[in-house]
Specification:
Layout (H helix, E strand, L loop, with lengths): L3 E7 L4 E5 L3 H14 L6 E5 L2 E5 L1 H7 L1 H7 L10 E3 L5 H13 L9 H11 L2 H14 L5 H10 L3 H13 L1 H4 L10 H8 L10 H13 L1 H4 L3 H5 L9 H8 L3 H6 L7 E3 L2 E3 L14 E8 L11 E6 L4 E7 L7 E7 L2 E6 L4 E5 L4 E5 L11 E5 L2 E5 L11 E5 L4 E5 L10 E5 L2 E5 L12 E5 L4 E5 L9 E6 L2 E6 L5 E5 L4 E5 L10 E5 L2 E5 L12 E5 L4 E4 L11 E8 L5
Parallel strand pairs: 3-5
Antiparallel strand pairs: 1-2, 3-4, 6-7, 8-9, 8-31, 9-10, 11-12, 12-13, 13-14, 15-16, 16-17, 17-18, 19-20, 20-21, 21-22, 23-24, 24-25, 25-26, 27-28, 28-29, 29-30
Helix pairs in contact: 2-3, 4-5, 5-6, 7-8
Length: about 575
């Protein structure tokens, strides 16, 4: 048996404190053996007709629920068998294992029953562990189920995250059947939200029709109420005239000839279907360029945004006056984090349309570094401090406002690209201390805080941009039209269709499942205003509406924002 003797500074007695390190675990194991053999037990908890023999003092010391029950004059405090309602036997067995051993195995099969039991019996650590487990399982195929479950058990952080995911991934969610099984009130709550991120309002109409048709005899009476949440002013005239009116469902419950009329140059919906005031809006994903350098080395202050549906650029906001030059840009949540070359950090709250100054980087100023957001934490990687290249990696948590140094890169590098895929941070290429470009790829695991080398790029590149689309990391830039694609799952590289323009010092982002490459330069000191869009389905590039001005060395990100609709 492992024992530890600790000499404490008890000068009065000249003695020491004896500690048995395993005493706690030995005690728990002994109590578990007593429970399993039903020795010295003084109460039975009955769930689903099964009796679980326990010790009152152990239950009281572990659960506020049982402490309140046994410490009061409640009838249960005097009974030998207590019936527990509202949980399953399997959940009770798991909870008792935790109470008596301090550990429990959480799986996809038992997490709901375990959380239900932990919630009822007020075993807070298990409840939080189950919520964390469900958080990690959250995706577009289960977000509504997890949302409803979390709401039922007041797991507010989990329910908020599930709902936010559902709002931001409407197009992806519509590809799965979970949305067709939603109860009417939840689907209505969903499609009525101004925060619903919709690429085309027609998709909202289509999913409502699909939902109704999934159980027509039951859901048909709800059709008009559901359709009242569609924003017809955001739908194309061609779709309204050619598709919606001719739909069989609408013929059965509305008057197609009264569906739409034109008055004073504006459309007015006179029928009972799709009647909605123009004050209601939606949210969309927008491409945002941040700062940068324009012609004649002008430092640009604007944040310009591009709507892929309307194909228009507009001004989102301007950088704070104290930000002279943008060092890096990342999105945290749905907010834009900007680090200046002077070490200052600003966060643009997209919903509130306000800037908030955050904690500075401290003594370590840097430029030409890579930046990426991983689990709502911003990582700054490598760079140049004015004297030498850096291997340093620092991360900033906007929620706490604190900086933290983490494991440095294996070697100093400036102007690399950085991307996050499946919870891992990839740092690709860059310039080494001998001024030469590198083809090296390093992968950082934030759990074990280690860097692992991966297969190098086909060529040594510096000053490039990296974006993640699906299962791949795409690399663009470095005064080239070539586009490389890296697969983290197989650790292999491939080459995709080339861009139409040669670019260096450009920036890229993913918006609506496509890659947008913005600005850059095609020869030294000559910024360009062109934008290209890559479609991974066709493996082809197409030109987009030009930037408002030529720009290089800028940031480019994607955020969701409510559309501005005139009343």
């Amino acid at each position: 048996m492992d024992t530890t003797l600790d000499q404490q500074g008890n000068t009065n007695e000249g003695g020491f404190e004896f500690r048995l390190n395993l005493h706690g675990s030995d005690l728990l194991n002994g109590l578990q053996e007593l429970r399993q053999s039903q020795q010295f037990t003084d109460v039975a908890l009955q769930v689903d007709g099964i009796d679980y023999y326990c010790h009152r003092n152990v239950l009281v010391s572990s659960s506020a629920y049982f402490k309140g029950m046994f410490s009061s004059n409640m009838r249960e405090s005097r009974e030998n068998v207590i019936v527990i309602q509202g949980i399953k036997a399997a959940g009770m067995e798991l909870i008792l294992d935790f109470i008596y051993t301090g550990k429990v195995q959480i799986t996809s099969d038992n997490v709901q029953q375990l959380l239900e039991a932990a919630d009822l019996l007020q075993i807070v650590p298990v409840r939080e562990a189950c919520a964390t487990f469900l958080d990690k399982q959250l995706d577009v195929t289960n977000c509504f189920g997890i949302y409803k479950f979390a709401e039922r058990h007041s797991c507010l952080a989990l329910s908020n995250k599930a709902w936010t995911l559902a709002l931001s991934r409407f197009t992806d969610i519509c590809k799965h059947n979970e949305i067709l099984d939603l109860p009417r009130d939840l689907l209505e709550h969903y499609v009525s939200s101004d925060d619903l991120v919709v690429e085309a309002e027609e998709e909202v109409y289509q999913i409502i029709v699909k939902w109704v048709n999934a159980d027509l005899s039951i859901r048909e009476p709800y059709m008009q109420q559901m359709m009242s949440h569609v924003r017809p002013h955001l739908m194309s005239n061609k779709y309204l005239n050619d598709s919606s009116v001719s739909d069989e469902i609408l013929r059965n419950i509305g008057a197609p000839e009264e569906f739409i009329s034109r008055t004073s140059g504006k459309y007015r919906f006179t029928g009972t279907i799709l009647r909605r005031r123009r004050t209601k809006t939606r949210s969309r994903r927008l491409v945002v360029i941040v700062g940068g350098v324009g012609p004649a080395n002008t430092k640009l202050k604007d944040l310009k945004c591009y709507d892929p549906m309307d194909r228009k650029w507009s001004t989102l906001t301007q950088l704070p006056n104290s930000v002279e030059s943008v060092g890096s840009v990342a999105v945290v949540g749905n907010n834009i984090c900007v680090t200046g070359l002077d070490g200052k950090v600003w966060l643009y709250w997209t919903g509130e349309e306000t800037w908030l100054e955050m904690a500075t980087m401290g003594s370590r100023k840097r430029q030409r570094h890579a930046c990426a957001s991983l689990k709502d934490v911003v990582y700054l990687v490598g760079g140049y401090d004015g004297a030498s290249r850096l291997a340093a990696v620092d991360r900033f948590n906007p929620a706490s406002g604190k900086w933290e140094a983490v494991t440095p890169l294996p070697e100093p590098v400036s102007s690399p690209a950085a991307a996050v895929h499946e919870g891992m941070l990839y740092v690709i290429g860059g310039a080494l201390s001998n001024e030469s470009a590198t083809d090296k790829v390093h992968c950082y695991d934030p759990l074990n805080k280690t860097w692992t080398p991966r297969t190098p790029m086909p060529h040594s590149l510096s000053g490039i941009s990296a974006v993640v689309l699906g299962e791949y990391i795409y690399i663009v830039g470095c005064l080239s039209r070539i586009v490389y694609r890296y697969c983290p799952a197989t650790d292999t590289w491939g080459q995709m269709a080339s861009m139409s323009s040669t670019r260096a010092l450009c920036s890229a982002t993913v918006c609506c499942d496509k890659i947008y490459v913005t600005g850059g330069e095609n020869q030294p000191n000559s910024p360009i205003d062109s934008v290209e869009c890559y479609d991974p389905v066709s493996n082809s590039w197409s030109p987009c509406h030009k930037l408002p001005y030529p720009v290089k060395l800028h940031g480019c990100v994607t955020v969701c924002k409510k559309l501005s609709i005139d009343s």
